[in-house]
Amino acid sequence: MKTPDFEVFIGITKLMQALGLPDPHSPDFQLYRFEESMRTRPAISPVYRSDSYIFALVTSGKLAFKVGISDFLMQEGTLYFLSPWHLHQYHRLEDLTGYICFFNESFFASTPEGLLTIRELPMFQLEGRAVFDLSAEQQQPFKDLFELMLKEVNCSSPSRWEIMRHLLHIFFIKAQETYHTHTRITPEHARNVRLSRAFERLLEQHFLLLSKGRTGKVFTVNEFAEQLNVHPNHLSNTLRKELGKSAKQLIHERLIFEAKSLLHTTELSVTEIAYRLRFDEPTNFTKFFKKSTGILPREYRTQAI
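User: That's the sequence. What structure does it adopt?
Assistant: Structure tokens below.
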């Protein structure tokens, strides 16, 4: 059944229920093997946001994953991290094996210094690239840590959650080593990456406000550039180098993704969606959508059911 808007899940329990996943170990923490959910988890998820931090290791299988304006392929050896509030959707291409963990900030509420550490981890920054392809040798320490955490979370020890928080910190220390190994770049490239990630973060934040009806327009390239304190041409040239697309192309791509989300997950009419996305006239939205996708919005909605 379609909902009034694309899904936003507050709390791990609601997220697990909506995605057909195993019941969480606690309202603030969930850890399981991918193979435990292949029969209940839908092959294609709704487009959604959640307040959960997620990290996972895929040991076999394939999963197409869209996060904001970026597309990833999760496959054997992929280690990935996802911070809260990203708009995302997955499509399972092959059954998966491996491990996945969900936690929210409440899990570290008893240790404020621990929560601060989590917020500052480079893997969980909105602008960070947190998807890594690991060799079998590089995967092994993470497999070992996942197995330790699974053993601990499934025991009845009164201190298991304290131990689990320490194991998470060990996991993240090891993950930071991987992050820094995979992101060794030249100073010029580093500047380009920072600008590209800042643009991605600003674009995602802007569309989050748009989805909540808290902004009256979609920013132009010039307005994004002004927010980032750079010239529009410099912004687009940098994005072409790093992401292969201009700023205008990325804005349009993100607008289409939002439109598809609304067509797929809501009962809003095409006219209502056009005004939600700040088009002056529904016909302009229809022309824009068809030019970008090759089909009309109503045709896309029929195919997506």
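The chain has a mean pLDDT of 87.
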